[in-house]
Specification:
Blueprint: E1 2-6, E2 13-19, E3 28-35, E4 40-41, E5 46-47, E6 59-67, E7 74-79, E8 86-91, E9 96-99, E10 106-108, E11 114-122, E12 130-131
Antiparallel strand pairs: 1-2, 2-3, 3-11, 4-10, 5-12, 6-9, 6-11, 7-8, 7-10
Length: about 150
């Protein structure tokens, strides 16, 4: 399994690629994401709902959440560019969030490490996504990665 530390500053997270592009599966991709308390994940907001390879492919996505303490939570935003979908969801341990389309960032509440199992399926065996242009500039502000990662070996 390939482990990746992605992002920077308080948008650093750990991604364990389980079923990734190149794995002998036709349409499914699976990864684990570990986000330290107070950090953002899937940030800047990105989407993968248009089949326009190689830049973006259409994938539906399911997030299955685990939070390291019983009273912890994460917040997930799901929105489309035209705001036809514009939801902000408080997610607790053991809950699922379906992302049929749109941008979908996540933030872990301060003091609570968040894990999610991420299953994606669509028209291609690729993780190609496009950032929300309003927030893409944030990548240029990242300095060092969060030293709390990796959370698990």
């Amino acid at each position: 399994m390939r482990v990746e530390i992605r992002g920077g500053a308080n948008a650093t997270r750990q991604i364990n690629h389980m079923i990734q592009p190149g794995f002998p599966a036709h349409r499914i991709l699976i990864c684990e994401v570990y986000t330290p308390g107070g950090n953002w994940s899937s940030y800047p907001p990105h989407k993968h709902d248009v089949h326009n390879p190689p830049g973006e492919v259409d994938l539906e996505e399911i997030y299955y959440y685990r939070i390291d303490k019983p009273d912890g939570y994460a917040i997930q935003k799901v929105y489309t560019p035209d705001l036809r979908i514009d939801e902000t969801i408080t997610v607790r341990d053991g809950e699922l969030v379906l992302v049929p389309e749109g941008y979908h960032p996540v933030v872990a509440a301060h003091g609570y490490n968040v894990y999610y199992l991420n299953a994606l399926a669509g028209s291609a065996h690729s993780m190609a996504a496009s950032d929300d242009p309003q927030y893409a500039w944030i990548r240029d502000t990242w300095g060092e990665q969060d030293p709390r990662l990796p959370l698990v070996g």
